[in-house]
Design a protein that fits this description.
The chain has 425 residues and is α/β, with parallel strands linked by helices. It has helices spanning 171-178, 227-231, 254-268, 291-300, 318-330, 370-378, 384-396, 399-405, and strands at residues 5-11, 44-48, 63-65, 85-89, 93-97, 103-107, 113-117, 148-155, 161-164, 196-200, 208-212, 239-245, 277-282, 306-309, 356-360, 364-368, 413-416, 419-422. The radius of gyration is 32 Å and the shape is elongated. The N and C termini lie far apart (67 Å).
Length: 425
Amino acid sequence: MFVDQAKIYIKSGDGGNGCVSFRREKYVPNGGPDGGDGGKGGDIIFRVDNDLNTLYDFRHKKHFKARNGEPGKGNRMHGKNSDDLIINVPLGTIIREAETGKVIIDMAHPGMEEVLLNGGRGGKGNQHYATPTMQIPKYAQPGKSGRDLWVVLELKTIADVGLVGFPNVGKSTFLSRVTNARPKIANYHFTTLNPNLGVVDISDGKGFVIADIPGLIEGASEGVGLGHEFLKHIERTKIIVHIVDVASTEGRNPVEDINKINYELKTFNPELVKRPMVIAANKIDVMQDDKYLLELKDEFEDKGIKVYPISAVTGQGVKELLYHIHDLLKGLDDETLVYEQEYFIDSEEVKEDAFTVEVLEDNTFLVEGPKIEKMLGYTNLETEKGFAFFQKFLKENGIIEELERLGIEEGDTVKMYYLEFDFYK
């Protein structure tokens, strides 16, 4: 089953906690700290799998979480880093931030691999916190939490040429004749409900990729039917080939059909109608007269749009059409249309002067931050001068103000890493 959009939750792994441990050898009565560091949490990595052409697997699995790093151990043993979690997606998958819809990354190149969320770093063991004034630190750094995000995966087919046309004009038959694709073909409307891709091999060895875009209807650009789902697959194509029923087997006027489809293309994305176009006047094998063929030539060839009479069933005229498309492509930029990044995941560490205050149970307040942790490492709180410096630090950095804003009262407990004290003004 073809699926071209899915919403999933991703989370990188948490870093493992550092360890609090002390040497306990028989002949080392005053063993120092030897707590090891925690391991890094796993990254979330997206990778293009060229064998995939649908997002169907994401209909059943919507939560992807990398494993956490292992905690550190005694004897300076480092916790094991977690393996990264790799999520395979089809070529052409755009990853958007779910709430804003902004593009995070466009997986537009074969074999592309991108780290979307970094795993949390492991916490440092207590061996790192020994100082001349604090030789038995009973604190180890907790591991950093991983990142999490809801994202929308959107598949936009990557092809050089897009085939457009109303239902039942012969697009699938044409694709099966000129490529190795084998789309479902039948004589009724909406046989094709997903884009089919095929590669055209030209004699000089330089082929190109064609996408059969499912039959469009009036109002498609406004979302009528499956309009938006179909139209988005033509946005990356370099050339648009209109396939029309020049025999009017269903009573349709091919000139009107092209104008209607161009209107839908322009309404959906004005850039689409600026791309090179070719008209394949199909079904000449059942054409009773050349009325509509002449009308097509009169209407469009003066505008620089070539009309090629063909029969997808017998193959008549197909070779000439393919070589014209090939020549057009040679004059165009080889680069695939890639959607620019609009949403930037903040992967930087917390600013040095930032801190957090968390209200715990039993009137306890947990205060943490890089600068706080560093200050505790070089301050001797057992001296009068050191304690005065500590109080000044809390006030000047807004920590006292934040504690009071959160409702701290005299006698409540404040925890800062290995330090714990009662709050008094």
